[in-house]
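Query form — protein Exocyst complex component

QUESTION: What is the three-dimensional structure of this chain?
INPUT:
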Amino acid sequence: MSNVKRKTVTENVDRGQDSVLLNLITNGEDLGPMVQLSFESGRPESLMHQLKHVVRKKEVEIEELCKLHYEEFILAVDELRGVLIDAEELKSELANENFRLQEVGSSLLLKLEQLLESYSIKKNVAEAINVSANCVRVLDLCVKCNNQIAEGRFSAALKSVDLIEKESLKHIPVKALKVLIEKRVPLIKSYVVKKVIVEVNEWFVQIRSTAKDIGQTAIGNAAASRQRDSDKIARQRKAEEQSSTGLVDFTYTLEIENSSEDSILKFDLTPLYRAYHVHTCLGIQDQFREYYYKNRLLQLSSDLQISSAQPFFESHQIFLAQIAGHFIIEDRVLRTASGLLLGNQLDKMWEIAVGKMTSMLDEQFSNMDTASNFLLVKDYVSLLGTALRQYGYSVGPILEWCSKGREKFHELLLSECRQKITAVLASDTFEQMVMKNELDYQTNVLAFNLQLSDMVPDFPYIAPFSSMVPDCCHIVISFIKDSVNYLTYGGQMIFVDVVKKYLDKLLIDVLNEAMLDKMLSASTVERQAIQVAANIGLIEKACDSFLQHAAQSCGIPAQAVERHQDSLKAKVLFKASKNEAYLALIHLINSKLDEFLALLKNVNWTSDEPPEHSNDYMNEIVIYLHTIMSTAQQILPLDVLYKVGCGAVEHISNAIVAAFLSDSIKRFTLNAVTSIDIDLNRLESFADEKFHSSGLSEIYKEDSFGSCLIEARQLVNLLLSNQPENFINPVFRERNYYALDTKKVEKICEKYKDSPDSLFGSLSSRSAKQSSRKKSMDVLKKRLKDFN
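ANSWER: The structure tokens for Exocyst complex component are given below.
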């Protein structure tokens, strides 16, 4: 039972496993895991048994299926036999039809072959036409390129070459033509480069010759602009001065200046643009840029060379205009040539030019000996700077050079003014200048504020100065103008102090020195000395006019100058020089008086006869003083006239006293003293008349010319006094003889003899009664000896 039961269980298990295996095979699933499990469990035989069981089961199913469809298969075979018969019949019919078709299509096949051959020919012809068209297109471009080169249209020719290279050359099927064109392209490019370089070289020559005209035009425009600005400033200054009075109505206008610098300065850069464009198209623009820069730098170096065959002053305008034109052209190239010239290259070029130009100007100016030439060259240099500043160039070093040259310029200017002033003084007759009309008066008097009153005098008008005063004033004004012109565009904005400095130098070192030299010259006579002294005073007065003119020339309004109350150092010095001139004049007059006073030795000091008239020397002195005082009265101020008169009269008084004291006069008599008294009376009469007629009496009411003769007058009065011993009385002496020195009086009294000192005279005097005068004189002599 147990065996049967175990067998049944085993069969059930196998059956279950067969069922699972069958399902896996039916579903097409992987049997790997089951096979792996069987081998791992050590029961592969069971698996094989199951597989065989499955196979047998499938075979049974196949047999059952075949049995099921056998009848249908037999029917199908029968139908296939019937179809086979029909197929044989159809084959026979097709063979017949094929034979007939071959018979009919043999002719068509021949025609087809002919057609295919025609199609092949057509294709070849089309290809030939296409190839020919490509060749013709390339050849047309070649012809077009040749024509463009012949016409000088190099940019277009390069475009054609580029088109041939990039688009047409690769489509050329003809190798020979392709090789030929490939060889020709570099030659064409090289030819175009050579042609544009030739054009550029010709342009270099042409533009260099044009640069001078360009520079002259630009500098001329700068000069015109400067003149317009100066005119505007002058009109504005005049309007400001007139507006200060509040009596003038103004009409304002707007001036519009519409001018383009580029439109005025026209020059052709086409060859340069074309050459640069050609090199850019060829990709060698750097090469051309370097070529251009080197050539222009060489041209600049050549332009900066000065020919020694021609003086620099005669060639400076052409020289500077050439440089200005060069850099105007370079600025245009920088702005319009799209990178042909770089900014740093132009800056370097400008730096080289400024360095060479300033060093060359230094050398030329060191050899220049004319201030006017110096000024003209400097003005043109400053105009060069003004013209190039508009194009963005840094002209500071040029203006700084102008400023540094001012010392040299003013040295030349002072030297020329010294020559002019010396010539003026040498040619001046030192006669009072005569003005025939109002124009002369305005030009020579009012222009320098030399008028004595605000009223216009009657003409002809005799001025208190000689022609040298207005001539020297005109020289000073010209000096101010030249100095301002030099400094105006020299890089310094406020330069009035500089002008004052050089103006003082002119007035002090040149004009004042020249006038003093003339004053102190041995050849200067009294008449000239009077006029020179008067001229110095008037030049001193004109200093304010000089300062005002200098300030206004520097752009400072007249009201500002008046408010500032500034003055020149030269004015103080002229005042001192004027006083020195007055002293020199007095000395000169006294020297001339000494010539007349030397005739005192011709006076008969021991005369026995009383004199009837004044001595000759006094007559000469009075005539001389009349001439001098009349001349001085017309020219010199009253205070100076007073000093001159007092100095002359006092000098005469001292000379007379000195004559009494002279060792050459051993003795003198009463008659000699009487003669001197007559001389003094005449001189006193002349002095009083001049003192009153000149108007000095209204100013100097206490001290007249006669008071300057006090020593000589008191001495004569003492010698003529009946009681000379009263001199010893202090009160009497203080009242009547205060100007006398007791020692001098003692020495003079020792020489005084009231009667001739002869043998018979002395004997008779002993016997005769002494006069009271002689007794009094003897008492005086004795008392003076005791007193001294």
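ADDITIONAL NOTE: Residues 206-238+267-393 form one domain.
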